[in-house]
Design a protein that fits this description.
By secondary structure, this protein is an alpha+beta fold. The protein is 39% helix and 19% strand. Helix 1 packs across helix 3, helix 2 runs parallel beside helix 3 and helix 2 packs parallel to helix 5. Bound molecules: zinc ion (ZN) (2 copies).
């Protein structure tokens, strides 16, 4: 099995299924690692900025090691298929913008079928047709020429320092620990966000 094939299987195992969105993240992550001449992240040397929270982000996490938990996966909720990666060691960055033609927006038959499947009204044979089309599209995304898949641009941007360790405070209202930078104040005492937002109790009349 090739390295690429092994990586794809890892990504599918993590995500739970093979799909076109996963293929998009897979290609973007591989291009980024190549462009930055980087290996999978160990200690937050890499940073991934993802502009969507779709399937592809799982592939980015597995391949680049930029993860939500480590704090070097930054989500910007722009609804765009754009992935930007930075390497702290080399100071290099690369922006990968996926081209729109991948989404079959211009194919009304496919869009109708998709809607049926997602709303649970599709017949078994329609589901099967959808599955086959998705499989085809996944393969297409994985094998199409890179220039058709995306644009690749070098970027320079100041990246904030590595995630810091924060102190914890005790919420004066529920008694649970809360990271200092997330604590709020309520009635002059430290509070966690849920407690700070809790409406005043008692009769207000
Ligand atoms: Zn998926
Ligand atoms: Zn609390």
């Amino acid at each position: 099995m090739t390295e690429e094939r092994k990586d794809w299987e890892k990504v599918v195992a993590f995500h739970g299924h093979s799909c076109p969105g996963l293929a998009v993240g897979f290609r973007a992550a591989r291009i980024a690692l190549r462009e930055l001449a980087a290996e999978r992240d160990v200690d937050e040397e890499l940073v991934a900025v993802v502009e969507n929270d779709a399937c592809g982000v799982d592939a980015v996490q597995v391949l680049t090691g930029c993860t939500f938990g480590k704090g070097n996966l930054w989500f910007r909720d722009y609804g765009k298929h754009v992935f930007t990666f930075f390497c702290r060691n080399s100071g290099r960055g690369v922006r990968i913008a996926v081209k729109g033609s991948l989404w079959r927006e211009d194919d009304p038959d496919f869009q109708e079928l998709r809607e049926k499947v997602f709303s649970g009204t599709a017949e078994p044979e329609e589901k099967e047709r959808f599955r086959r089309l998705q499989e085809e599209r996944t393969r297409h995304i994985l094998t199409m020429p890179e220039g058709e898949f995306c644009t690749v641009q070098a970027v320079q941007e100041e990246i904030p320092p590595k995630a810091k360790i924060f102190r914890s405070l005790t919420c004066a209202f529920c008694g649970e620990q809360v990271a200092e930078h997330r604590a709020r104040w309520r009635e002059g005492r430290p509070a966690c966000i849920p407690c700070a937002q809790e409406p005043e109790k008692g009769c207000k009349c």
